[in-house]
């Protein structure tokens, strides 16, 4: 298990489904390999992976498929947060056993208005039950979806109590001031904004990279921008154009529809309920808008 600080561009990998909505593992593995080749790491079972629409066994199978296909474990994060601690423990132990770089852990997200003490107890219990020195947790702050924020004071408590296990934060709040506060208060942690645009803006402040849905369709340009300041200046306008275009549509459906176009595989358009594919007029508008952006390219 690597001990260096987590850094880089990670992709919350969207999950391909067959027409019957079963998981298409060969297409998933092929997509993961493309992302690695383009310079990005992968984050399996994230929000944009439709993880909460997948079974426990499916989430384990996705990790196994990636690792068994030769994806380096040090380039893999795994979303293991669940409302039930026992489920989170099993998924987390499995990620560690498969040599993954870390786990991305949501707070328990059903009960709302819970106390900070309650959320602290959840992470404490998870760490105690996993009981493995290789455990590396990236806290997942996405209050708009989870309804359970990870406050700065909670981060401080967790870092003080578990300094070897709490290694990073994914900040999906979209709040610049919150991101800056995290970077200033926790310089030892790997702080990942959920947007490549916020990454480019915050690299000079110590951001560790990004974990962004649009990496699925633009990983090469985003990874180049992360790695080289000169490339960042050159690529930033096109990267921003891709991001702003995709954000006009439901994110998962838009990313999948774009992948269907890039790979010439229409099955990428499938999403699981309650999500729905893009309507015909929206899909036409999306692809026409992306077609004129230099950062985009066809993917075989």
Automatic annotation (TrEMBL):
Keywords: Lyase, Plasmid. Its EC number is 4.3.3.7. The keyword Lyase applies. Coiled coil: none annotated. Pyruvate binds at residue 211. Gene3D superfamilies: Aldolase class I. It holds the Pfam family DHDPS. SUPFAM superfamilies: Aldolase (SSF51569). The active site is at 140 (proton donor/acceptor), 170 (schiff-base intermediate with substrate). GO terms for molecular function: 4-hydroxy-tetrahydrodipicolinate synthase activity. It comes from the Bacteria. It is an enzyme of class 4 (lyase). The keyword Lyase applies. Belongs to the DapA family. PANTHER family: BLR3884 PROTEIN (PTHR12128:SF67), DIHYDRODIPICOLINATE SYNTHASE (PTHR12128). This is Dihydrodipicolinate synthetase. It comes from Cupriavidus metallidurans (strain ATCC 43123 / DSM 2839 / NBRC 102507 / CH34) (Ralstonia metallidurans).
């Amino acid at each position: 298990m690597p001990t260096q600080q987590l850094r880089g561009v990670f992709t919350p990998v969207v999950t391909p489904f067959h027409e019957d909505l079963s998981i298409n593992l060969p297409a998933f593995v092929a997509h993961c390999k493309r992302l690695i080749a383009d310079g990005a790491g992968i984050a399996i079972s994230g929000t944009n992976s439709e993880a909460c629409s997948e079974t426990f066994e499916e989430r384990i199978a996705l990790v196994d498929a990636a690792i068994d296909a030769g994806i380096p474990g040090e380039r893999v994060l795994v979303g293991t947060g669940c409302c039930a601690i026992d489920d989170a423990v099993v998924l987390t132990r499995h990620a560690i056993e498969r040599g993954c770089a870390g786990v991305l852990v949501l707070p328990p997200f059903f009960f709302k208005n819970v106390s900070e003490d309650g959320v602290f107890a959840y992470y404490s219990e998870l760490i105690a039950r996993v009981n493995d020195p290789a455990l590396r947790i990236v806290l997942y702050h996405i209050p708009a979806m989870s309804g359970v924020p990870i406050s700065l004071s909670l981060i401080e408590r967790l870092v003080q109590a578990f300094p070897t296990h709490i290694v990073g934060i994914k900040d999906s709040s979209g709040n610049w001031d919150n991101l800056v506060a995290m970077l200033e208060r926790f310089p030892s942690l790997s702080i990942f904004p959920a947007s490549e645009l916020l990454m480019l803006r915050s690299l000079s402040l110590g951001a560790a990279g990004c974990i962004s849905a649009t990496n699925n369709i633009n990983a090469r340009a985003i990874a180049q921008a992360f790695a080289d300041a000169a490339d960042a200046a050159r690529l930033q306008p096109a990267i921003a154009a891709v991001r702003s275009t995709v954000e006009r549509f439901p994110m998962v459906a838009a990313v999948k529809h774009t992948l269907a176009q890039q790979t010439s595989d229409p099955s990428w358009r499938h999403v699981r309920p309650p999500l729905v594919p893009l309507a015909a007029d929206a899909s036409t508008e999306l692809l026409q808008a992306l077609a004129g952006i230099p950062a985009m390219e066809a993917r075989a």
